[in-house]
Amino acid sequence: MKVKVAQKEDFHFLGTGESGREVPIDAAGYVGGKGRGIRPPELLFHSIAGCVGIHLYEALHKEGKHTEHIEIETDAERITEGYPKVFTKIYLFVKVKGDVSEEDVKKALDKTIFDPGTCSIAYMINKVAPIEYKIEIVR
Q1: I need a surface site. Which of 6, 39, 41, 118 has the fewest CB within 10 A?
Q2: Please, which residues have CB within 8 angstroms of residue 49's CB and are 6 or more apart in sequence?
Q3: How many C-beta atoms surround the C-beta of residue 19 within 10 A?
């Protein structure tokens, strides 16, 4: 996986990957960022939630389960004193609308994240910051 990140100005960078899409990146305001892009920790959580969502959808559909909508929110525990400010636990709040049961979604999430994990990002991150999830089925 190749990605290039180039400085535009001060703490503002522009990333480009194999897809050719550009991703603006900036530091937090307290260190000098000016809101010109997504902060790197946010990018990590977009990656985790996006990867889990894609693989959850795939796992459910392989089992013949129909979904109308999947939504994943994240939260985390983080060491905030000193550096590095690492995440120690990650929480996923997973809402699924469709003809599925909570057990269907749990089975698919476990396969996606833990067993050994079809979502490589969540599987890898789970080794250093354990991932927990809660499921809500929307009718």
Answers
A1: 6
A2: 72, 73, 74, 92
A3: 8
pTM across the whole model: 0.93
The label of the residue with tokens 């969540």 reads 122
Q: How far is CA 114 from CA 18, 24, 55, 100, 133, in A?
A: 27, 31, 12, 20, 12
Read off φ and ψ for residue 110, nearest 5 degrees: -60, -40
Q: Is 51:126 a contact under the CB 8 Å cutoff?
A: no
What is the reported pLDDT for 115? 81
From residue 16, give the alpha-carbon distance in Å to each of 27, 54, 83, 94: 17, 21, 27, 29
Assess contact for 52 and 37: CB atoms under 8 A.
no
Phi-psi region of 64 (alpha: psi -120 to 50; beta: other; left: phi over 0): left
Q: Average pLDDT per run of 10 along the chain, which is 139 residues long?
A: 96 97 96 96 97 98 97 97 95 97 98 94 97 96
pLDDT of res. 103:
98
